[in-house]
Every structure is written in C-alpha cells, then in structure tokens.
TrEMBL record:
<keyword id="KW-0496">Mitochondrion</keyword>
<dbReference type="Pfam" id="PF00153">
    <property type="entry name" value="Mito_carr"/>
</dbReference>
<comment type="similarity">
    <text>Belongs to the mitochondrial carrier (TC 2.A.29) family.</text>
</comment>
<dbReference type="InterPro" id="IPR023395">
    <property type="entry name" value="MCP_dom_sf"/>
</dbReference>
<dbReference type="GO" id="GO:1990575">
    <property type="term" value="P:mitochondrial L-ornithine transmembrane transport"/>
</dbReference>
<feature type="transmembrane region" description="Helical">
    <location>
        <begin position="65"/>
        <end position="87"/>
    </location>
</feature>
<feature type="repeat" description="Solcar">
    <location>
        <begin position="4"/>
        <end position="93"/>
    </location>
</feature>
<feature type="transmembrane region" description="Helical">
    <location>
        <begin position="107"/>
        <end position="124"/>
    </location>
</feature>
<dbReference type="InterPro" id="IPR050567">
    <property type="entry name" value="Mitochondrial_Carrier"/>
</dbReference>
<keyword id="KW-0999">Mitochondrion inner membrane</keyword>
<dbReference type="InterPro" id="IPR018108">
    <property type="entry name" value="MCP_transmembrane"/>
</dbReference>
<dbReference type="GO" id="GO:0005743">
    <property type="term" value="C:mitochondrial inner membrane"/>
</dbReference>
<dbReference type="GO" id="GO:0000064">
    <property type="term" value="F:L-ornithine transmembrane transporter activity"/>
</dbReference>
<keyword id="KW-0813">Transport</keyword>
<protein>
    <submittedName>
        <fullName>Mitochondrial carrier protein, expressed</fullName>
    </submittedName>
</protein>
<keyword id="KW-0812">Transmembrane</keyword>
<keyword id="KW-0472">Membrane</keyword>
C-alpha cells in the first residue's frame, strides 16, 4: 500500500458503508418494528419478520422499508469510512509499513477494536435517530403532531428535550459492542479469506475477479453472522431473526464493495 494512499482507504470504506445500508436497511426496519410493536400492550402484533415486511409493503410501500435511511446513509457511510480506513492504516502501521502474508491476530484485533471504538461516537447518535425515524411509520401509534419531519429535526428535538447526553444515550454500550464486534468480524474475515484464497490458488492457477467476489461474499457474510450470533438468546431479543438474516447479505455487500473499491483505487491488499 503506497504511503500516499491513506485517503483512498477512507473512500473505499465509505463506499462499503453505502452498500451496507442499501442492502441491510430493510431488514433493520423490520427488526425495529418487531421490537417496538410486539412489546407494547396495544400495539400491532406481528407474527414474524415476513408478516411485518408484508404489512410495511402493504401500508407504506417500498419506501416504508427505507424509512430513516437518510440518516443511515450519512451516518453509516461516514462510520464505515472511518472503520475501514482506520483499520487499514492501523494494521499497516502495526506491521511496520510492510505487507505481511498471512493474518496476524496481534495486528488484526487491536486495529479492529481501535476502529470500532472510534466509530462508536458516530454510530451512537446515528442509530438513535434512525430508530426513532423507523418507529414513527404510518401504522405506528405515534401521533402526527409528535412525529419528526426529518432526521435533522429528530436530532435537534432530542438535544432540546434531553440535552447532548440524550443523543449519545447508550454510548458506553455502543463503544464496547463495536470494539469487540469488529475485532470478531475482521478476525473471521481475515482468517477465512486467507484460507479460501490459499485453497483456490492450490486448486487452480486461474484466479478470476468472479472468484474474488465469491470469496468476498463468503468472508463478509460469515464475519457478519459471527458478530450477530453474539447478540444473545432468541428469547431475550425480539427481532433477532431479521438481524441474523440481515447479517450475511449486508456484510457480504460491504466486503465485496470494499475489496472492489480498493482494487479500483489501486490499494494493495494483503
């Protein structure tokens, strides 16, 4: 990786974040709806994630699945840019500026945990706004007079009524989750990627872009599932099903986009 390619790492990460939201946001909306309505005494009861999805499409259309996506695209794109950029640059620094063949846990884990800790300060307010916008769907119990007109309005009103600490509610938990979660994600990604590439090279000399994409889908998807399986027992988490279903395609899209962007930008990967 060239010395002057630092900004390119952040650009590649930003594109990965856009892909994550485009693929994963509908699943996230369903999860939030299940968590909101199935825990209210007089709320709408959804039998499953599929029932919830069909209800949203019927009452709100496709745009209902992307409710709150504006703040997600901005927040996740910025967060992803920081995460992948910091991870790449920190990993390179810990390796002494030299590309090393084979994953090293003493490099991967601190790089990923550091990146996760930094992005938690962006992710916390972004997630809070996104969830509040998702909850106020057309079939919600939230009265029209109390609805937020936009993600910015939601953020401003939250700060007005709850103060700055209100927009960072749950910050410590988010920091811990992102540090540990990303250490797990990148560890799984790097080890599975190294193993699969080694097997492919041993089996065939024809290493195509299609094979790279397939490996990216598998490594990103498995890394995402490894994170979300840490969420807890199903009985303790309403909406865990859509979260697990989302984990594979959303993270697969992120990794494939990240690796493709790095290749286009001329960034050398280990």
């Amino acid at each position: 990786m060239g010395e002057n390619s630092g900004y390119k790492d952040y650009v590649a990460g930003l594109l990965a974040g856009v892909a994550t939201v485009a693929i994963g946001h509908p699943f996230d909306t369903v999860k939030v709806k299940l968590q909101k309505h199935n825990t209210e005494a007089h709320g709408v009861k959804y039998r499953s994630g599929l029932h919830c999805t069909s209800r949203i499409l019927k009452t709100e259309g496709v745009k209902g699945l992307y409710r709150g996506a504006t703040s997600s695209f901005v927040g996740v794109a910025f967060e992803s840019s920081l995460l992948f950029g910091i991870y790449s640059r920190t990993k390179l620094a810990l390796q002494g500026g030299v590309q090393i063949s084979g994953p090293q846990p003493q490099v991967i884990i601190p790089s990923a945990a550091y990146g996760g800790a930094i992005i938690s300060f962006v992710l916390c307010p972004s997630e809070l706004v996104k969830c509040r916008m998702q909850i106020q769907g057309t079939d919600s119990l939230v009265p029209k007079s109390s609805r937020y007109s936009s993600p910015l309005n939601c953020a401003v009103e939250t700060i007005k009524t709850e103060g700055v600490k209100g927009i960072f509610r749950g910050g410590c938990t988010t920091l811990l989750r992102e540090s540990i979660g990303n250490a797990v994600f990148f560890s799984v990604y790097e080890y599975v990627r190294y193993y699969m590439h080694s097997r492919v090279k041993a089996a065939s000399s024809n290493h195509s872009n299609l094979i790279d994409m397939g490996i990216g889908i598998m490594t990103g998807g498995l890394g995402g599932v490894a994170i979300y399986r840490r969420a807890g027992l199903k009985g303790c988490y309403t909406g865990l099903g859509p979260t697990l279903v989302r984990a594979f395609p959303a993270n697969a899209a992120a990794i494939v986009t990240w690796e493709l962007a790095m290749k286009i930008l001329g960034i050398k990967h280990d």
